[in-house]
Write a structure and sequence with these properties.
The chain is of the alpha/beta class and 500 residues long. It has two domains: 178 residues, Leucine Aminopeptidase, subunit E, domain 1; 308 residues, Aminopeptidase. It is 36% helix and 20% strand. It has an eight-stranded mixed sheet with strand order 8-9-11-10-14-18-15-16, with helices on both faces. Strands 1, 2, 3, 4, 5, 6 and 7 form a seven-stranded mixed sheet that branches. Helix 4 links the parallel strand 6 and strand 7. Helix 3 crosses helix 4 and helix 5 packs antiparallel against helix 10. The radius of gyration is 25 Å and the shape is elongated. Bound molecules: ligand BES and zinc ion (2 copies). One zinc ion (ZN) binds next to loops. The site of ligand BES has 15 residues, from helix 12. Its cofactor is Mn(2+). Keywords: Aminopeptidase, Cytoplasm, Hydrolase, Manganese, Metal-binding, Protease. InterPro entries: Leucine_aapep/pepB, Macro_dom-like, Peptidase_M17_C, Peptidase_M17_leu_NH2_pept, Peptidase_M17_N. Its EC number is 3.4.11.1, 3.4.11.10.
Length: 500
Amino acid sequence: MIFNIKKFDIEKEHIDCIVTGIFSLKNLSNSATMIDNLSNGYIKKILSYGEMQGKIKQSLILYNIPNIISKKFLLIGCGKKNKINDDQYQEIICTIVKNLNKMSMKKVVVYLNELNVEKRDLYWKIRQFIEIFYEKTYIFSLNKNKQKTFNNTYEIIIHLEQESDFSIGKIAIKHALAIASSINIAKNISNLPSNICNAEYISHKAKEMENIYNNIHTYNIYEKDMKLLGMNAYLAVGSGSENQSIMSIIQYNNSKKSIKNPIILIGKGLTFDSGGLSIKPAESMSHMKYDMCGAAAVYGIINMIATLELPLYVIGVLACCENMIGKGSMRPGDIITTMSGKTVEVLNTDAEGRLVLCDVLTYVQKFNPEIVIDIATLTGACSVALGTEISGLFSNSTYLINELYKASKYTLDYVWHLPIFKKYKKQLNSKFADINNIGGRMGGAITAACFLESFVKKYQWAHLDVAGTATNEEKKVEATGRPIPLISQFLLNRVKSLLK
Ligand code: BES
Ligand code: ZN
Ligand code: ZN
C-alpha cells in the first residue's frame, strides 16, 4: 500500500475510486457537493431514495456518476458535521477500509481533511488513518502453506486543498508508516508459536537489526553470562526449560547532543508461561505463547525509532526465557538470591515475570539510565481491573505519568494510572527471605508493581502491565502490538522540537 498526498482535481483528473463524506441529515461534504454540482444533483437524488442518511458506519458505492471522469465512488457516513469525536473518526476509517477491501482498484483518493475532528489537526488525522488502515488489514498466516494476503496493492491519495499543508502531511505519513509497520513486525513475532519463537529466535531477530539499520549495536547475554552476573531470579525462571534463557540488548544511539543517560525499554519475553510447578489450568495456559508480547513491543519500538532515525539514545532489553516444568525447575518455597543481593522466596512459580524483571531492573543500572520503562504481560489481575482496552500504568515519576497520559490521549492507546500502594507491600513480607513473590488474591496488579518497585534504583521508572491489552479477543486472540503506539508517541514528543 502506498500513501500519497496531492491536490486532486475531480473535474479534470481520472482515478479508480473517489472516497467522499456524507454528514448527518444528508449534508454533503465539499467534495460531495462538487460532485453533485458537476452531475446536476445526482448525489442528492440518490440520497433522496433514503438508502443513506450520513450516519456513522453507513456507506454506499456508486458507479458512473454523470459528467465525472472517475467511475467509482464510495460515500461514507460521517455523522454530525464539525462534531466528529475520536471514536467516531475511528469508525469512519474502519468503514472506509472495509469497503475498499471489497473493491478492486489501483488508485483511490480520500477527502480526509474535510472531516473536522474535535481538537485534532491534520497530522493526527493522517496518522490515525494510516495506523487504522494497517491494523484492519493485518493478516497473520506465516505458518500456513498458503499465505493469505490482503488486497493492498493500491495507492491511496489523501487530497489536500492547501499546498502549505503538504509538508506536515508528508511527515504524518512517514511517522504513521514507521509506527504501523513496526506494529506489524511485533505482531508477527508475537503470533508465532513457542516451538518456533523461543529466546534464541528472538535473539537472532535482535541481532539482525544491526544489519538493517544504522546506529544499532546488539549483544546477547546468555545463561553463562547471567550466572556470572548473579541473575539468579531470571535464571530460575528458565531453569525448567530445554530452551536457553537469553537477554538481548539492542542499543540504539543517534543522540545529537551525545546524551549519556539512555532511555531503557524492558520487555517481558516469556516465550511460554506454563506456570511452572505452580502449573496453570489448561484454559489459562492456552494463550501463554503471548507472554512475550512485552519483548516484541520493545523490538517494534526500536524498529520504529531506527526507521525514523530519531535523535535519541534508547536501549531495548528483551528479557526472554521459558517457564516450564523440567528437572531443573524452581520449586514453590525455593529461596533465590537475586542480582541485587535481595533474597526472594518463590511462593508461586507462576509469578515468574517479576522474577525475570527484578534482575533486569538491577542489571540496567549499569547504563545510568534517565528513564526505565518496562512492558509486561504481568498479571491476570490487571486485565480483571482494567479490561482489554486499558493498560495499567505504575510509576515513581510524575513526569512519566504526565507524559505517558499525554501520549495515551493522543494515540488512543489507553493507560490508567494505578498506585504502588505502600500498605500493600506488607503482603510481600516473607517468613524466610527478604521478600516473597506473591501478594494475596486481591489487588494483584498492584502487589506485582510493589514487588518490582523494591528493585528499582535511582532512575525514573514506569511499569506498564499489558496483560489485558497485548492481545485481542475479537480476532480469536491475536497480538495487538500495544503499547507501541503509546511509547512511540512518548518518544516522538521527546524529540518534537528537534524534528522541525
Ligand atoms: N503471564 C501471566 C499473566 C497473564 C495472565 C498474562 C493472563 C496474560 C493473560 C503471569 O506470569 C502470571 O501467571 N501471573 C499470575 C500471578 C499470580 C500467580 C500472583 C496471575 O496473574 O495469575
Ligand atoms: Zn506466570
Ligand atoms: Zn507470565
